[in-house]
Amino acid sequence: MTTAPDTPPSLYAKREPVFPRRVSGSFRTLKWVLMAVTLGIYYITPWLRWDRGDLLPDQAVLLDLANRRFFFFMIEIWPHEFYFVAGLLIMAGLGLFLFTSALGRVWCGYACPQTVWTDLFILVERWIEGDRNARVKLWNQGWSLHKARLRLTKWLVWLLIGLATGGAWVFYFTDAPTLLADLLELKAHTVAYVTMAVLTLTTFFFGGFAREQICIYACPWPRIQAAMMDEETLTVAYRDWRGEPRGKHRKADAAHELGDCIDCNACVNVCPMGIDIRDGQQLACITCALCIDACDDVMDKLGKPRGLIGYLALSDEGMERKGQPPRAIWRHVLRPRTLLYTGLWGGVGVALVVALFLRLPIDMTVAPVRNPTFVLLSDGAVRNIYDVRLRNMQGSIRTFALSLKSDSDLRLSLEGTDTLTVQVPADETLLQRVYVTAPAGSAAAHATRTELRLWVQDAAGTDRVSSDTFFNGAPQN
Amino acid sequence: MTEHRSHQDDQDVGTTGHSWDGIEELNNPLPRWWLYTLYVCIIWGIGYTIAYPAWPLISAATPGLLGFSTRQDVADEIARFETTNGQIAQRLAMADLADIPADPGLNSYATARGAAVFRTNCSQCHGAGAAGVQAAGYPNLLDDDWLWGGDLAAIHQTITHGIRSDADDDTRWSQMPVFGEILEPEQIDQVVMYVRTISGQSHDAGPAAAGAVIFAENCAACHGETGMGERALGAPNLTDAIWLYGGSVDRLRETVTYARAGMMPNWSPRLSETDIRAVATYVHQLGGGE
User: Fold this and answer.
1) Domain range holding A255?
2) CA–CA separation, A231 and A101 (whole Å)
3) Contacting residues of A for B242, CB less than 8 Å apart
4) Which of A391, B26, B92, B242 is the most exposed place for a label (fewest CB within 10 A)?
5) What's the pLDDT at A6?
6) Number of H helices, E strands in chain B
7) How close A180 gets to chain B, by Cα (Å)?
8) Cβ–Cβ of B143/A377 closer than 8 Å?
9) Rounded-to-integer distance, Cα B133 and Cα B131, Å
10) Is A230 inside any structural domain?
11) Where in chain B is the domain with CATH 1.10.760.10?
């Protein structure tokens, strides 16, 4: 390491523009497919329909914030079932651990929205302004009518993509066809327009101008993921023991023992992050593998074996230097650590699915009223009040019957009705005031605590749940 | 390896000179857009304190150019709710009292509104849970014992005009005589024993028998021959388990000797008819409504 130079360097650095060159190859093809799939899922999902009857929305995936419901095809999640969301987040976390420990920053390189949208924006840029050399030339030119036309066209297309991104986002929160009509007639809620405007502009700037700056300076994942990698993790790496010393392979150099790297800079020119993979693993590398495609192409032309740049683990380096072949890919991927993550991930997944199928479309919470803890009635009987919340998690109105089970002589009654049944509207929670009365002189009337169990069942008797609570007697004076 | 693994730029920027466990900190420059973002945030911050109330002065803060006020926000929000609920509030004010509980929409609106009115105006005496204060003259509204009637109309009447409220000519009014000036202490003890008898509490049979006669002569006019009370006069039922001022011998002797006259304000000028109907509906559904 060198010491600080005599003249202190500038504290702030200008962004160096990156002009990634077009590349083709297996990883590029994989990235095109993943881009089509991820963007397809994102844009199409809100338009899928799912019939849930007349009283519930028919959008397959809907985050109904106003009514606090989350619909996902046949599944409907209520606020009290938020543990499903927690479980999904835990699975997402474990999934990230798994993929990062096995394949490094594969999320960053292939699936991260920043990567996917930037890739799309670069594609648009290439269509309009040409490939790397044309873009570098255009960048260095002064402003002209030609440059202005190209720039404006590019920005317009970027803005339209941004608008579509923000536009698709808001469809997840309300009925998509209705909202689209409202949006076009300019009568949708302000929140929808503001959300779309914010997402349009962030997409435009993040994908068009900030690009790699987001990954390097704004995103916490590179730091966190680096901590989850080990010497068996596959990352994109340059086999410097094979490539060095690099050189142009001119006739004059023939005498020297040169490595396979011809220093053509193909790997640097295709890199969307503007880095040189030959410097080794670095924070800015998102492992998108485009340099592998670029280098393989060059090696093919030279008639040398592929893989000067390739997916490699740190532990392979020593073996390769000794001339041994690297360990098989599957041995890097299948090891105790990744199997443990897979097991945990699967365990949480299975638990969620089981919980999903075990839950009943009926639920009850019982909250004893504590102010006061008991009420003395004129005939000497003692009454307790309970706030009972009855949930009808079905798309039709249902009649629920309440009953009470206790070893003591306790009687159940409901506020506002002489019966023990209430009608709960479709997909709603009903708050019912419930009274439990101990007759005058009975044991429960003066016992400190009496156990009791409240049952609720639907009219058909198929769904029933219970809740245990206590009865407070009046102290005898 | 090292010469390949360290970026060429590292050589240019050098280190900050900080070294810890052999780890050195590169003196990398910050991105320039980051600096500009900081400047924009500073300008935004200054603009914010000009646009919104910010700088504390002696009596208030600077008002801000946009005229934003949290109080105005609350007022707007309340106005918005009043507009939204205007129709149903109107319906509540006009509806036949007895019809309110049977109308689910009206009932739930009245109950919710009444709960808010109750907490603001009634809970000071009756308690937040409406349980009153035991044996201290603040009635429990959750039980089934009502001095002046427990149907919706009676509750509405009581809230509107109050009890023994000087400010209202239509107030509910009655006065128990101060029997300390009429009866001898021994007679009072006897009548207390009699009241304990009819309410099913422990008593001495001898004085109670004498008390029966005194009761018939002095108390039955209001409390009834059997002591069941008289709602028209707000005279409590003396045979039940509920005692507004306590049912012990000492408390009963105190009550008979000095009399009781609880007071509740008339709410009609203070609360709107809609609010009174709302709070009456709320009280009616607390468990004791008739």
Assistant:
1) 235-337
2) 9
3) 376-378
4) B26
5) 61
6) 13, 3
7) 27
8) yes
9) 7
10) no
11) 176-260
